[in-house]
Each structure stands twice: as structure tokens, then as C-alpha cells.
Specification:
- This protein is of the alpha/beta class and 339 residues long.
- It starts with a helix and ends with a strand.
- The protein contains 13 helices and 16 strands.
- Pfam families: F-box.
- This is F-box domain-containing protein.
- It comes from Pristionchus fissidentatus.
């Protein structure tokens, strides 16, 4: 670690504490509170070097907050509880033997992790403890397995009051969630604005459970509050009206968005009937010759200053055709190109 950087940051902290002239002071003679402030003012690389001097500095650095973690993993159920937080050269583990809430809150305060992943059968204890521990933690990606209502309430509490415009959230539903669809739907309707949202459901879920989860209201909320939404649920109860209302958000607002979800063929047929403009003829014909179930997605981008509406059909996760129409000029035909 460059000694000049450390001396500069140390003197700045000491100058804030006193207006008296600064004399040479051994760094290790400083009180813990001042050393914590020194840590907070250092770059991540200098911070790593500084904490390696001795165990005292390691403890101070650990508890002063503002840490950058590559990932944080939480595995939780009634018999097994563990939180593993790692950075470039150091890891921290909390288990049922040392899971002190104050220590955890100090560890993660003001910190950032590229990914926060929570798995297991979330209990009421986890629902109460984890939002406190991660209260000021920012994350680039949140990944949670959904088993019961506690999972949904945990997500709501983790997202509460956070600015997540550049974050990605991934929810994976597993067996048993069908009993709590009402609570989960309410949670989906309340999520704040963020960048990327992914929702998937295990193959063991019945079609009726899936259909009940994703309806017109949930779809419209997700399209409004995300830049990209990927709903990997085989069955939904999205109607042609819900599809049309979501489509209008792309058409009217002129913003860059993307959405992908499954709808039955008859829903697409009814959706296409909303359009009488001849430029949608090719689009309607394409829709009606697809299988009974298909993945419909669309996105809107700006090309050479013009707003482009791109309709895409996806089958087996492979894009088949892409139809583009410059909305500004409103052509009478739809240009077609292969992808």
C-alpha cells in the first residue's frame, strides 16, 4: 500500500478531529474509532493491505462497514443456517453459533455485493433477521428461491427503500409455493423500479398454480417498473386485454424496454384483433401459424434517431423472426428480416 496515501488519509481524518497542529503519530497508536474512519477513506486495494498488518486492524476493518463483497450466499432452514460473504482475498462466515445480529449489521453496513443469493426454506426468524443484517447493503443482483410466504415478505423488506434501477432480481419458485399464491402476487405488485427481473418456476408446479400467479395486473406492474422482464413460467392467465395494455406502454412512452412471457395462441389471436392497421397483417399471420403455446416478447429501441418497435417470437429459446416498423414514419407494411 502506498504510504503517502495512507498518511494523507490519516492526517485528513485527524485534522477533522482537532484544529491543533498535527504532530507525527504512530498509526497503530490511533484509537479504534479513528482507525475505522481511516479505513473508510481508503480505496479497496489500500484497505486490504492495511488490514493485513495485524489482527487488531483486521477486526476494525471488518466492522467499519463500506465493504465490497464479490458475493454473499445465505442458506437457511430450520436445522441449518449459514451466511458466507466473500471478497477478493478474505471470507466471512456466520452460522448458528456466531450469528449475532449486531456483528452482522456492522459487517454489511454501507457495503455492496455483486450478488446476494438466498436459498432454503425461509423461516420467520430469517424473515426478521436478514433485513436487519442487510439493511444498508446494496447489491447488483438478488437471487431468491421461493418456498413459502416468508420468502415473499423477506423480498419486500429487502427491497424496501432501496434504489434498484441498476439491479437485477431473480426469483425461482419451487414446490409448495402454490398454497401462497395470493401473498406472492401481492409482493410482485409492490416491487420498486429496477433494471432486470427474472421469474422462473420449477417443472413440478402445476399449470393452474402458474396461471394464478401471473395475471394482467402483475404483468402490467412488471412492465412498468422494469427495463427487462423475463417471466419463465409455462402457464399464465394473461388475457389479450392485459397484453394490449402492456403493449401500449412500449408504444406510447417511447422508452427502451423488453419483456418475455408465455401466452396461449388464442390470447395472441385476440391481441392481434386489436390492430386493424394493414402493417400488422404479416404480424397477425405469423402469430396464428405458431404452436398453441409460444413465448412472445417485444422490445423497443432507437435506431438512427427513430423509435423502432421490434416484435419477436421465441420458440425453444431461439428467436425465429423479427419484424420491425419505424413508428415515427408509420409505414403501411412491416419490414421483415431473419435473425
Amino acid at each position: 500500500m502506498p504510504s503517502s496515501a495512507l498518511v494523507k488519509n490519516t492526517k485528513e481524518v485527524m485534522q477533522e478531529e482537532s484544529t491543533e497542529p498535527i504532530t507525527e503519530t504512530l498509526l497503530l497508536d490511533l484509537p479504534n474509532e479513528m482507525l475505522a474512519r481511516v479505513f473508510s477513506s481508503l480505496t479497496l486495494e489500500d484497505r486490504k493491505s492495511f488490514r493485513s498488518v495485524n489482527d487488531r486492524l483486521k477486526r476494525i476493518e471488518r466492522n467499519c462497514g463500506g465493504r465490497h463483497f464479490t458475493d454473499i450466499g445465505v442458506e437457511w432452514n430450520t436445522s441449518y443456517k449459514i451466511i458466507v460473504a466473500g471478497d477478493a482475498d478474505m471470507g466471512f462466515i456466520f452460522n448458528k453459533n456466531n450469528m449475532d445480529i449486531d456483528s452482522m449489521r456492522e459487517m454489511f453496513k454501507g457495503g455492496y455485493t455483486e450478488e446476494l443469493e438466498i436459498t432454503g426454506d425461509i423461516t420467520a426468524e430469517a424473515e426478521n433477521l436478514l433485513p436487519i443484517a442487510f439493511n444498508t447493503l446494496k447489491f447488483g443482483r438478488l437471487s431468491i428461491n421461493m418456498f413459502r410466504p416468508n420468502s415473499g415478505r423477506l423480498i419486500s423488506r429487502l427491497l424496501d427503500g432501496k434504489e434498484l434501477k441498476n439491479a437485477a432480481i431473480e426469483l425461482r419458485f419451487r414446490s409448495g409455493f402454490g398454497k401462497f399464491v395470493k401473498e406472492v402476487k401481492q409482493m410482485l405488485r409492490e416491487i420498486p423500479h429496477f433494471d432486470i427481473f427474472r421469474l422462473s418456476s420449477g417443472k413440478e408446479q402445476s399449470g393452474s398454480e402458474q396461471e394464478e400467479l401471473i395475471d394482467d395486473d402483475v404483468l402490467l406492474h412488471l412492465v412498468k417498473h422494469t427495463t427487462s422482464s423475463y417471466i419463465d413460467v409455462e402457464a399464465t392467465s394473461i388475457t389479450s386485454r392485459g397484453l394490449y395494455d402492456a403493449f401500449k406502454l412500449f408504444w406510447v412512452n417511447g422508452v427502451d424496454k423488453e419483456a418475455s412471457f408465455n401466452v396461449p395462441r388464442e390470447t395472441i389471436d385476440h391481441f392481434c384483433n386489436h390492430f386493424v392497421d394493414e402493417r400488422f397483417t404479416a404480424l397477425r399471420e405469423m402469430f396464428r401459424h405458431k404452436d398453441s403455446e409460444a413465448t412472445f416478447s417485444w422490445s423497443e429501441t432507437r435506431v438512427a434517431g427513430e423509435i423502432q418497435m421490434c416484435f419477436v417470437f421465441m420458440r425453444s429459446r431461439k428467436v425465429k423472426r423479427c419484424y420491425q416498423a419505424p413508428l415515427a414514419t408509420r409505414p403501411s407494411t412491416v419490414k421483415r428480416r431473419s435473425v
